[in-house]
Design a protein that fits this description.
Chain lengths: ~150, ~725
């Protein structure tokens, strides 16, 4: 289990927290679900998180708020935003702001997989660069990093 | 004979003579004695004189009762056994002739010589038996003494018997006299009582007669009586005072002189008819007063019958009806005026009796409908209505006739000119007398066909406007709606993808696939619910009237707008009253108003800091007959001066609004007999209110408002209209 990259799903919608982690696991990742940004920060899962699947509009701390908070904490976790009322304008702005991707609901599993792969890969890149990453996980492609091979 | 023997004989005779003298003296002693005393004395004397062993005496009872039996034995033998023996010895002979008796009877081993002797010539007094065990008994002298004694006893006992009979008769006489005396005394008392009663009755009668005279003269009418031939014999004082004539002048047929000549033939013929029939009757005629003025009177006559039913006299009373007559004439005149007026007024008018039967229609109504008066009178008026409306009209009319409530119904009425039916408003009000009893219904019928068509058209237009406004309102929700639909769609796609992957794995994860497929279906349902909810608000439909739970309707609106509120960072608070009575109306239109107020509030808070965007939705009772809903925001508010303009069409403070939302909302609320108003808050923002009538008045019936939210000053002062 240690081999699998941990993906955190943060969304106030219960059906998303129910369905999305299952699909992520089908891709061969480990997944956990959190109902709010505050819950995620309090969970202590941040260090092991390789990618955040983050809802934008949430009561309390929004997705954007969490992104700012992580930046303030110096935690460069790759973020894939998901939103039900977004448009292309928002998507561009978020990507410019450092997000790996912004997925508009409803999205396809392929789009999700590509975004996750890109995020985990970028995370590896950044962690390799910072010299914190162990040797066995370095030098591989994004698909090589996935222990279980999903069939697209 | 020897001299010694002579001496003894002489001595014996001497004794006998002594005894005889004693015996002959006995009756003097017995005088006034009881028979039993005489019998005992007799027995004593015989026993002592003749040295007897037995003296039996039987006294027959003069009244026929059992005879008295007395037995005396010699003192030496006086014991019960001896008595029984003597009784048995004599018993067979007691009723036999003394001539047939034996001279001796055997007793106790010896013999008893007996001498029976009748008392009275035929033994009617009784029987005397003397007995002795001596051999020489009875000697001649003894026989003589017994015989004399029997005679003396007979005389004595007869005397005693007479005496006793006399006493008995005297006693009986006394008893009868006493009884008769008591009877007489009783009769006497009864007579006195009857006399007293009679006197009282006579006094009462006299008083009654005096009272009757007074009453007859006090009666505020002219009282009279006649013989069976119609000739008058009595007039009360009132009558005589009224006509100013003496009783003599009025008697017989004299009274006819005071009857108005014009009324006399009618009155006399009526009077003859009443007398011929022998039954009570009445007639009207004018009577001349002492001053020469004639006044109308009602003559009433009643026959007095004897036991056989024959009329023996007529009594009558004449009542002054002058004022009533005048009133009747005035009424007739005013009715004629009214009729003439109803025929002139350019309206369809009618009237009905208190029990609901039509009794008058003016010509305009008949011309309009093409029916004749005969066809529609009574209950025939139902024919005037369209067959589909007649039943309802009849039902409402009957209810009004029963309760006295004003009658009002919109129904199609026959229109003769184009052989069609036209919508008419038919109304009626009851006319009541001074006691509140309905004496008449007066009604009208107004052709409102064109007005109603215009009204229907207006209603359709208003409904269409409301719908269009609704669609426009929904436009403001586009982003929220997209989110509402995208959310379940995302779920569907995610779950379906997961499902496919689980099935394609080796080995396939069937349990996981089933679970994700189930979630797919659930999300599909969720999307469909969203669409259904939206569709209700978009669909073109006619206004419906139903019982609406304002709280439930509000919650549905909140569900629809919650995403929008969240998107705009508005925090929502609700204070919905418990036990809110339902209102009657169109649910969708009312929800449209609530949504419109909520979106207006959100819009008003757009320029306020995110943390200060607060929305409060509250419901409650305004007063006994009204519920209300308030939407309070913390937005920019408005100046009190603009309040009158707020609800005008096309008035808007928004750059992108058309300004018809509030105008349409107000027309919707007013169509529900409600009121919509607004006022600035004391702090930031404004509150929009609407109140609606509710059917339930059980709570808050004391007029005190029961409202969950804070009550604005305006609602307190103007809300109860």
């Amino acid at each position: 289990m240690q081999d699998r990259a941990f993906i955190a799903v943060v969304d106030d919608d219960e059906s998303v927290r129910e369905s999305l982690p299952d699909l992520v696991r089908e891709f061969g990742y480990e997944a956990g679900a959190f109902s709010s940004a505050e819950e995620f920060l309090a969970s202590g899962c941040l260090p092991q998180t390789r990618c955040l699947l983050l809802d934008i509009a949430m009561p309390g701390m929004s997705g954007i708020d969490l992104q700012r908070e992580l930046a303030r904490l110096g935690q460069a976790v790759p973020i894939v935003f998901i939103t039900a009322h977004g448009d292309e304008g928002i998507r561009g702005r978020l990507r410019d702001g450092g997000a790996v991707e912004c997925l508009m609901k409803p999205f396809t599993d392929t789009a999700l997989l590509e975004a996750l792969d890109a995020a985990v890969h970028s995370g590896v890149q950044s962690k390799v660069q910072s010299g914190e990453q162990s040797g066995e996980q370095s030098g591989g492609t994004a698909s090589a990093l996935r222990p279980g091979t999903g069939r697209d | 004979m020897e001299p010694k023997q002579f001496g003894a004989e002489i001595q014996r005779l001497q004794l006998c003579i002594n005894d005889l003298v004693s015996i002959l003296a006995l009756p003097a002693i017995w005088v006034r004695g009881e028979p039993s005393t005489i019998a005992q004395s007799l027995q004593e004397s015989l026993l002592s004189m003749l040295r007897l062993d037995l003296v039996y005496l039987r006294l027959s009872d003069p009244v026929g009762e059992a005879p008295l039996e007395l037995v005396r034995l010699d003192e030496r033998q006086q014991n019960p056994a001896r008595l029984d023996e003597v009784g048995r010895l004599l018993a067979p002979w007691l009723d036999a002739d003394p001539q047939g008796w034996p001279a001796r009877l055997p007793i106790g081993g010896g013999e008893l010589s007996i001498v029976p002797q009748r008392l009275g010539l035929h033994g009617e007094i009784g029987l005397l038996v003397a007995g002795s065990t001596r051999d020489d008994f009875p000697r001649k002298t003894e026989r003589l003494l017994i015989s004399v004694m029997a005679n003396q006893a007979t005389v004595g006992l007869q005397g005693a018997r007479h005496l006793s009979e006399q006493k008995r008769i005297a006693g009986e006489l006394d008893r009868r006299v006493a009884q008769r005396t008591a009877e007489l005394a009783k009769t006497n008392a009864e007579l006195r009582r009857q006399m007293s009663e009679r006197r009282q009755a006579e006094e009462a009668l006299a008083t009654n007669e005096r009272n009757l005279d007074q009453i007859i003269n006090m009666i505020p009418g002219l009282v009279w009586s006649t013989r069976t031939d119609g000739t008058a014999e009595f007039f009360n004082q009132h009558y005589l005072d009224y006509v100013g004539l003496s009783s003599d002048k009025m008697k017989g047929w004299g009274w006819m002189t005071v009857v108005h000549p014009g009324d006399l033939p009618g009155l006399t013929s009526a009077w003859r008819a009443i007398m011929a029939q022998g039954r009570a009757g009445e007639a009207e005629a004018r009577l001349r007063r002492f001053d020469g003025e004639y006044r109308w009177f009602l003559f009433r006559a009643n026959p007095l019958h004897d036991e056989g039913g024959t009329v023996v006299r007529w009594f009558g009373i004449n009542t002054d009806i002058e004022d009533r007559k005048r009133a009747e004439e005035a009424l007739r005149a005013s009715e004629w005026n009214l009729r003439r007026m109803t025929e002139t007024i350019p309206q369809m008018l009618w009237s009905a009796t208190p029990d609901g039967a039509l009794d008058h229609c003016n010509a305009r109504l008949l011309d309009y409908t093409g029916f004749s008066a005969e066809q529609v009178m009574g209950n025939g008026w139902a024919k005037l209505f369209h067959p589909e409306d007649a039943g309802q009209a009849l039902m409402v009319w009957r209810a009004c006739v029963t309760t006295g409530a004003p009658y009002q119904i919109e129904a199609r009425v026959a229109h003769a000119a184009d052989r069609s039916y036209r919508w008419c408003l038919t109304m009626a009000l009851p006319l009541r007398d001074e006691n509140g009893r309905i004496v008449k219904w007066h009604g009208s019928c107004v052709d409102m066909h064109n007005w109603k068509e215009a009204q229907d058209e207006l209603r359709d237009t208003q409904a269409e406007l409301a719908r269009v406004t609704r669609v426009m309102t929904m436009g403001q929700l586009t982003a929220s709606i997209a989110h509402e639909i995208n959310q379940p769609l995302a779920g569907i796609m995610t779950n379906a993808s997961t499902c496919l992957r689980m099935l394609g794995a080796d080995p396939p994860n069937v349990a996981g696939a089933r679970e994700t497929a189930r979630r797919t279906i659930r999300d599909g349902k969720r999307a469909s619910d969203v669409i259904a909810r939206l569709r209700v608000l978009f669909t073109k439909r006619s206004a419906a009237t139903e019982a609406v739970d304002l709280n439930a309707a509000t919650e549905e609106v909140i569900a629809l707008a919650s995403t929008e509120l969240q998107r705009c960072s508005v925090s929502l608070r609700t204070e919905l009253a418990d036990d809110l009575p339902p209102v009657t109306g169109d649910r969708v239109q009312l929800q449209q108003v609530i949504l419109n107020l909520v979106l207006n509030a959100v819009e008003a808070m757009r320029d306020v800091d995110e943390g200060l965007r607060e929305l409060l939705i509250s419901t409650g009772r305004l007063d006994a007959g009204h519920v209300c809903l308030a939407v309070t925001d913390s937005g920019v508010g408005f100046d009190a001066a603009v309040v009158p303009k707020l609800f005008n069409p096309f008035y808007t403070t928004k750059s992108d609004g058309m300004g018809i939302g509030l105008s349409v909302s107000r027309s919707i609320i007013e169509n529900h007999q409600g009121r919509l108003w607004a006022e600035p808050n004391e702090g930031a923002g404004a509150t929009f209110w609407f109140s609606l009538p509710c059917s339930d008045t059980s709570a808050g019936a004391d007029g005190s408002p029961v409202f969950a939210g804070s009550m604005p000053a305006a609602a307190k002062t103007t809300g109860s209209r």
